[in-house]
């Protein structure tokens, strides 16, 4: 027993059974319980795949917003992902968060999955390597990462109750594999999903014990998804360690009785507490706390507001002030040094600031700590923005290019930027992982900034996208009490008396304060229409709601809750709309109210959208603008109707008249670039007519700047598809997300993604791994060992040459195909990859290490891994559908 283990046992021995059980349920929605007698403080958890929100949904407490996880999957670059993980850790430190609920390691099993944007890939190898890199980046700085949602939680339909039926072999080789990689990377927390697998809910599943804890040696904490614990005794006996949220769960006194009655062994409770103590020690929550921020650093704006702070603290300029100092370790996340270490002396971050400057600025170099901390925060923010901007370009996938990209700014007098997404892009997916970015660079902003005054940039919105009306925002309305941009939030009692009031910046209020006697949430604003016509006004939530415009009731009713899904109830409640005629320049007061009733949540959303344009006129206007321009850039994308937690998609269409818009613009100007703003696959029926098609995913806050870098050749589009894209949904081999009688059978087995396309001999629009750069490559040679022993790793060398006119980066991919015989295997499967860089005309060699596990399969009879001897084909190329080099290696039995 180590000294640390002995200390855990000593602390465990100080607790009574009730005190132990008390620790196993959260104290609040986002905090674990403290135990002062042990020196154990609360630990704070936060959603985090695209940004660390903190403990509250408060638009005044903004976060850095990264590109979506699907964009990170498109990087095929673990070092870059590690640096982005370090950025998440720095944000967690700033917000006093101990555990970041990322990465999501579920797979893109079907293109209809509503949460694709939050998952990396369709392939277990790419997902595992990318997820492990993010884990390493987050945890190198004293913050815990969370691998979720264990396991087979790959679609949203009936996700709270679905029972996924999947074979032992498929679980091991496909769906468990990314989690095994995360455990090997040292992940400290694993989240059990809502779903069941093979008849047992995941919170009580034997899979939490084997393979997770026993076989893989996971020594961290298994936490429930929020509200997922439904069966107290079975989960108590199983591997679940922490029930969230608190303060109530199915455990508590019921678990104490179960232990006293012998239904749950006390050893199971002890194991759970040991794991919590181990996690707390790793996060600095046990014993003397580490210094997490410079002296004088404040608390979050959102926390101040709920504690009754003055409205001064809620103003936008107050929210922009740094709340915590950043340290040299935070700077290292951006400066490119190895995680957990400082770079060499004089190492410079992305913006050229010396990495060690942050240590001094964070308060380690003399007096004036407040000013220096502010300077450190400013420098960190600048470097973070630069890193996020480069991530946009590095993850952008050039799907198609007829020598249109890159555009030469010197030859552009007029550029037409077309589409509603150019000014209202989707920067992130919908659901519980959302954050409030401090700012967003739109595609139009980025293009205008890049071209400057020498080029005329014209924007035409085009027809409606059928997107839901957005929440009220400061650029559209003002607080009727203070006349400042934003809205007025009030809580009223049953008699209509005011209990609470404050100024807010958004009509989307997901967590109005909880006050005794609160009966109604009211959000009001003075709306100044910029267009005459029928505006769409809406209110979102459940229960009795109403909307008035200048004291006239325009919408009123009782809106029943139709789902238990927390992402819908608490984050994205349905919005009920009405059209109201408004006059440009004539202000109106909009007031929305919703009554608070048990079981309906608190989320209240008020939305407004201008009159929908005439589609024919909008298409004609777009075509005219394109025809008169030297180049046209059309930005199209999905909406929250299509890609959001809590819902799966029903089709792969872009929505509205966006396909017609692209057709009209490409017909008017052959120099048209179509920018696709989506988190997952969409149909692109016009792709052959476009001059170029560029996929930017949900690019985060710096999307417009990174896009401009790619469009004008300052950066090469570095992304490669992490998911196969179908030409039409009907072509896709695996599409089912709807359970039958509560069951969802994964009867496609091992064959998802490109594996299924290859098995069915179908050709997609774009294969997994596809992506063009601004140069071309020739694959010239493949060198593999003649033979090897089963279980051994081996090295593959690929010779290739840059045949284009620019320096470039190529992602070289290696796939395997098994020997002939009765054992079912995929037609080919990804075994490894690497990236190379070369100047024009230069030859280079890609060296790819293939781990021995890449050849193995799971034997269901022996419940063990086996490697079948025989000849294996090794295939190398630039995508799962473009593998020009093939060689054979003979695998001999070991022993």
Shape: globular
Helix content: 10-25%
Biggest β-sheet, characterized? 7 strands, antiparallel
The radius of gyration computed from the alpha-carbon positions, rounded to a whole number of angstroms, is 27 Å
Low-confidence parts: 292-329, 335-367
- Percent of residues in beta strands? 15-25%
Q: How many H/I helical runs?
A: 22
Provide a descriptive summary of the structure in words.
This protein is of the alpha/beta class and 895 residues long. Strands 12, 13, 14, 16, 18, 19 and 21 form a seven-stranded antiparallel beta sheet that branches. Strands 9-25-24-23-10-11 form a six-stranded mixed beta sheet, with helices on both faces. A hairpin with a 7-residue loop joins strand 35 (870-877) and strand 36 (885-892). The longest helix is centred in the middle third of the chain and has 27 residues, at 369-395.
Would you summarize the structure shown here?
The relative contact order is 0.12. The chain is an alpha/beta fold and 895 residues long. The two termini are 35 Å apart.
Offer a few descriptive terms.
single chain, 895 residues, alpha/beta, TIM Barrel, Rossmann fold, six-stranded mixed β-sheet, 22 helices, 36 strands, 24% helix, globular
What's the helix and strand layout?
Elements: H1 3-12, H2 17-22, E1 45-47, H3 69-75, H4 78-94, E2 99-101, H5 124-139, E3 144-150, E4 163-165, H6 168-175, H7 177-184, E5 189-192, E6 196-197, E7 200-201, H8 209-213, E8 221-224, H9 232-237, H10 253-260, H11 266-282, H12 301-306, H13 316-320, H14 328-335, H15 357-364, H16 369-395, E9 397-401, E10 414-418, H17 443-451, E11 456-460, E12 477-478, E13 487-492, E14 498-504, E15 508-509, E16 520-527, E17 533-540, E18 543-549, E19 552-559, H18 566-570, E20 575-582, E21 588-595, E22 604-609, H19 615-627, E23 631-637, H20 658-668, E24 672-677, E25 692-695, H21 703-711, E26 743-745, H22 754-759, E27 777-783, E28 787-789, E29 794-802, E30 808-817, E31 829-838, E32 843-850, E33 857-859, E34 864-866, E35 870-877, E36 885-892
Parallel strand pairs: 1-2, 2-3, 3-5, 4-6, 4-26, 5-8, 10-11, 10-23, 23-24, 24-25, 28-36
Antiparallel strand pairs: 6-7, 9-25, 12-16, 13-14, 13-16, 15-22, 16-21, 17-20, 17-22, 18-19, 18-21, 27-29, 29-32, 30-31, 30-35, 33-34, 35-36
């Amino acid at each position: 027993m180590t000294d640390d283990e002995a200390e855990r046992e000593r602390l465990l021995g100080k607790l009574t059974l009730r005190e132990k059980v008390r620790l196993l349920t959260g104290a609040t929605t986002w905090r674990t319980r403290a135990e002062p007698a042990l020196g154990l403080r609360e630990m704070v958890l936060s959603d985090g795949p695209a940004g660390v929100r903190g403990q509250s949904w408060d638009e005044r407490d903004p976060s850095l917003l990264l590109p979506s996880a699907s964009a990170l999957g498109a990087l095929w670059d673990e070092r870059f992902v590690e640096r982005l993980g370090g950025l998440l850790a720095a944000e967690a430190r700033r917000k006093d968060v101990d555990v970041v609920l990322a990465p999501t390691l579920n797979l893109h099993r079907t293109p209809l999955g509503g949460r694709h944007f939050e998952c990396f890939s369709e392939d277990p190898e790419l997902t595992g390597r990318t997820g492990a890199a993010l884990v390493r980046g987050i945890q190198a700085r004293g913050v815990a990462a969370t691998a979720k949602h264990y396991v087979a939680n790959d679609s949203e339909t009936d996700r709270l109750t679905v029972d996924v039926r999947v074979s032992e072999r498929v679980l091991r080789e496909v769906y468990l594999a990314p989690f095994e990689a995360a455990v090997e990377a040292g992940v400290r927390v694993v989240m059990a999903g809502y779903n069941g697998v093979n008849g047992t809910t995941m919170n009580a599943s034997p899979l939490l014990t084997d393979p997770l804890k026993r076989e893989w040696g996971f020594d961290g904490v298994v936490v429930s998804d929020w509200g997922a614990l439904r069966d107290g005794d079975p989960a108590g006996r199983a591997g679940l360690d922490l029930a969230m949220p608190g303060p109530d769960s199915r455990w508590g006194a019921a678990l104490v009785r179960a232990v006293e009655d012998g239904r749950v062994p006390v050893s199971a409770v002890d194991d759970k507490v040991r794991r919590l103590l181990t996690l707390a020690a790793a996060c600095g929550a046990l014993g003397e706390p580490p210094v997490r921020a410079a002296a004088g650093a404040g608390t979050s704006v959102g926390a101040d507001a709920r504690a009754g702070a003055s409205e001064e603290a809620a103003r936008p300029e107050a929210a922009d002030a740094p709340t915590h100092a950043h340290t040299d370790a935070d700077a290292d996340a951006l400066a490119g040094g190895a995680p957990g270490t400082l770079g060499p002396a004089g190492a410079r971050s992305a913006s050229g600031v010396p990495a060690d400057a942050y240590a001094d600025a964070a308060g380690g170099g003399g007096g004036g700590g407040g000013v220096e901390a502010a300077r450190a925060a400013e420098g960190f923010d600048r470097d973070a923005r630069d890193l996020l901007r480069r991530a946009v370009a590095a993850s952008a996938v050039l799907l198609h290019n007829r020598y249109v990209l890159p555009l030469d700014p010197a030859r552009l007098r007029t550029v037409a930027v077309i589409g509603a997404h150019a000014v209202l892009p989707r920067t992130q997916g919908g659901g519980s992982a959302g954050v409030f970015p401090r700012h967003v660079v739109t595609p139009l902003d980025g293009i205008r900034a890049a071209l400057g005054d020498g080029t005329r940039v014209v924007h035409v919105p085009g027809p409606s996208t059928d997107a839901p009306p957005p929440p009220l925002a400061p650029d559209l309305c003002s607080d009727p009490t203070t006349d400042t941009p934003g809205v007025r939030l009030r809580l009223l009692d049953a008699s209509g008396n005011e209990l609470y009031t404050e100024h807010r910046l958004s009509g989307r209020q997901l967590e109005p304060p909880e006050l005794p006697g609160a009966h109604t949430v009211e959000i009001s604003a003075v709306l100044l229409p910029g267009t005459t016509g029928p505006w769409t006004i809406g209110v979102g939530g459940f229960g009795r709601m109403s909307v008035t415009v200048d004291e006239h009731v325009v919408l009123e009713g009782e809106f029943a809750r139709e789902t238990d899904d927390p992402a819908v109830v608490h984050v994205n409640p349905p919005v009920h709309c009405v059209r109201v005629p408004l006059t440009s320049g004539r202000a109106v007061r909009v007031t929305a109210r919703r009554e608070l009733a048990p079981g309906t949540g608190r989320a209240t959303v008020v939305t407004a959208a201008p009159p929908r344009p005439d589609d024919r006129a909008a298409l004609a206007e777009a075509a005219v603008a394109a025809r008169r321009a030297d180049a046209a850039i059309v930005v199209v994308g999905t909406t929250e109707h299509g890609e959001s937690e809590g819902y799966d998609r029903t089709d792969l269409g872009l929505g509205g008249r966006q396909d017609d818009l692209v057709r009209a613009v490409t017909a008017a100007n052959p120099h048209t670039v179509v920018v696709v703003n989506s988190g997952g696959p969409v149909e692109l029926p016009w792709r052959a007519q476009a001059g170029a098609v560029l996929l930017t995913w949900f690019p985060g806050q710096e999307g417009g700047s990174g896009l401009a870098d790619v469009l004008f050749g300052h950066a090469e589009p570095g992304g490669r598809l992490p998911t196969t894209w179908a030409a039409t949904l009907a072509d896709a081999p695996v599409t089912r997300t709807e359970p039958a009688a509560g069951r969802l059978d994964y009867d496609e087995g091992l064959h998802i993604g490109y594996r299924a396309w290859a098995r069915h001999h179908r050709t997609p629009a774009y294969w997994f791994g596809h992506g063009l750069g601004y140069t071309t490559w020739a694959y010239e040679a493949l060198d593999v060992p003649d033979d090897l022993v089963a279980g051994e790793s081996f090295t593959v060398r690929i010779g290739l040459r840059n045949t284009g006119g620019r320096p470039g980066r190529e992602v070289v991919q290696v796939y395997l195909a098994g020997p002939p015989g009765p054992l079912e295997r995929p037609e080919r499967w990804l075994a490894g990859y690497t990236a190379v860089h070369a100047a024009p005309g230069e030859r280079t060699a890609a060296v790819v290490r293939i781990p021995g596990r890449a050849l193995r399969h799971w034997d269901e009879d022996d419940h063990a891994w086996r490697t079948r001897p025989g000849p294996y084909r090794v295939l190398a190329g630039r995508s799962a559908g473009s593998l020009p080099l093939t060689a054979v290696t003979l695998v001999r039995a070991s022993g």
